[in-house]
Amino acid sequence: MGASYSQFCPVAKAMELLDERWTLLVVRELVIGSEHFNQLRRGLPRMSPTLLSRRLQQLVRAGVITREETDGEVRYRLTEAGEELRPVVEALGTWGTRWIPDLADPDLDPKLLLWDMHRNVDHEKVPSRRTVVAFEFDDVDHALARWWLVISPADVDVCDVDPGDEPVALVQTSLRTMTEVWRGDTAWSAARGAGTLRVIAGSDVAAALPTWFLLSPFAGVPRPLTRLAP
What we know:
230 residues, alpha+beta, 5-stranded mixed sheet, 7 strands, 38% helix
């Protein structure tokens, strides 16, 4: 547990655990469905492995998650107490989408973006064969500019090294634009119309590509006309 607020208020008692840095984001990843340490790491790419281990231990001790080991494989799962945090995480995501929309450059992360996109592929819309989609970002360091999603009927892999398959589509855009599309701030069609996103593919694939990806769970949150001041 974190430092005590020395208040009997249940909000204060809850925040003694949950307001430590990264803790609620670890819960977010578990709510989304991550169970293994490496999955959690990929959903939290800027969190150190040491700190992630510490936070997981704290959540286990608090009874929010369980640590289960079977044949050397460790899984972390939400307990009943942890599941009760699901609407809390969802409410925070909705609130943040509505009232804190601005993204600074440090908030943009290609690793996290492609990881989020990979777990929101609509397999019913993607061709029923191994399919590769390449992404090329023009506003990041060259070493982080190219990414591939390798989609098969049963799985999706994120690659930062060319998997060797010919992509059915190459998306050329900025990391900011692709993030805004993923968040629902900008539509695929609007970005293409503005020339900030280009799809190099056959006409059928180019038309279908946006349907292959389910957007962020918060993409449909209505935006108010006025926002909180920065």
